[in-house]
């Protein structure tokens, strides 16, 4: 199974829409929960544990590739070594993105930690596959360093273990801030990284593909990019659909819930004024609160079948992404 589009499960609505879309068209799609979204102790998405989430998806579709996104130290709600989460992930996911680079900025430290995680994973589940590397916002990699990482992993892992490394994160300038992709797209860098992936028989995967126009997405795939991650964009689709069906008082209540959650702080610049940008703040972090009891009281006041409308809007965007990713 080699999906081109990988989507963050920002809500149960998004998960259900992806499942329906994949089943209706017999189309393969990847789901990429972060540790904050779905965790062994429960996450903000439908309060799912790792086990419950994976069992739910697998019970409804055989077209979904389940990939843990950014598994590693300090990638959850609290600082940790990531081992407890990883150990549970090994039992349920198809692929785990081993991302140790948030804690280990030095190359040798990151390499050794990546090796340790993969060796541990293989001892737990010999069928498990891996994604390596990280996105530019965590640690920038040049093409030469990406190639060195591949060579060093191959040199330090037994052949049967290294063969489970399937995906590598490549970088071409994507970065997210305030519902925008603020990165500077570097076409030549993308081509170099794709070439390295092909040289070693690995599947290239770019992160933070949100908010890119369809023409840029199509160009990336035409240059040989194999797959791309998209997450906050889908949370925003659901949030905007909800906002369109709330009155002023309900919007104000939603804003207060978002403001007090502080979930927006990591996504905005230092000079961002939440009081002057209420709708923007809701769009930035509303999806974090979809399982919040106070938010659900607001949502339940909506007169129409809002979940059906959300489902329709999500599937419309998935269809666009699928079409553009296969135009090449």
Describe what you observe in this structure:
There is one protein chain. The chain is of the alpha/beta class. Helices cover 46% and strands 12% of the residues. The chain contains 13 helices and 10 strands. It has an 8-stranded parallel beta barrel, surrounded by 7 helices. The protein has a two-stranded antiparallel sheet with strand order 7-8. The chain is globular, with a radius of gyration of 19 Å.
Strand content: 5-15%
Extended strand count: 10
Q: How much is the radius of gyration in Å? A: 19 Å
Name the average pLDDT.
Answer: 94
Helix run count? 13
Strand order of the largest sheet: 1-2-3-4-5-6-9-10
By CATH, the topology of the largest domain is TIM Barrel
- CATH-level-2 architecture of the largest domain: Alpha-Beta Barrel
CATH homologous superfamily label of the largest domain:
Aldolase class I
Biggest sheet character: 8 strands, parallel, barrel
């Amino acid at each position: 199974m080699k999906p081109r589009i990988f989507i963050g499960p920002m809500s149960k609505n998004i998960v259900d829409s992806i499942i329906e879309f994949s089943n209706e068209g017999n189309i393969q799609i990847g789901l990429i929960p972060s540790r904050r979204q779905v965790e062994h102790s429960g996450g903000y998405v439908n309060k799912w544990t790792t086990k419950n989430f994976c069992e739910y998806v697998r019970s409804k579709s055989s077209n979904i590739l389940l990939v843990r996104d950014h598994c590693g130290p300090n990638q959850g709600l609290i600082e940790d070594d990531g081992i407890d989460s990883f150990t549970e992930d090994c039992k349920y996911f198809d692929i785990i993105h081993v991302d140790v680079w948030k804690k280990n900025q030095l190359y040798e430290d990151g390499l050794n930690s990546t090796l340790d995680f993969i060796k541990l994973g293989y001892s737990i589940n010999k069928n498990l596959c891996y994604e390596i590397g990280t996105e530019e916002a965590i640690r920038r990699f040049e093409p030469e360093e990406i190639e060195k990482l591949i060579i060093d992993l191959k040199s330090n892992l037994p052949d049967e273990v290294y063969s489970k490394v399937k995906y590598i994160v490549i970088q071409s300038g994507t970065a997210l801030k305030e519902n925008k992709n603020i990165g500077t797209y570097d076409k030549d860098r993308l081509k170099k990284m794709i070439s390295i992936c092909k040289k070693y028989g690995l599947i290239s995967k770019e992160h933070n593909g949100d908010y890119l126009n369809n023409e840029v997405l199509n160009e990336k795939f035409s240059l040989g990019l194999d797959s791309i991650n998209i997450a906050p964009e889908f949370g925003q689709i659901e949030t905007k659909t909800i906002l369109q069906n709330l009155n002023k008082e309900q919007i104000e209540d939603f804003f207060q819930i978002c403001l007090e959650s502080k979930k927006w702080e990591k996504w905005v610049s230092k000079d961002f004024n939440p009081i002057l940008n209420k709708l923007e703040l809701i769009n930035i972090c509303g999806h974090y609160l979809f399982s919040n009891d106070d938010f659900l009281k607001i949502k339940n006041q909506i007169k129409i079948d809002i979940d059906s409308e959300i489902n329709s809007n999500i599937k419309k965007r998935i269809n666009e992404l699928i079409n553009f990713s296969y135009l090449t």
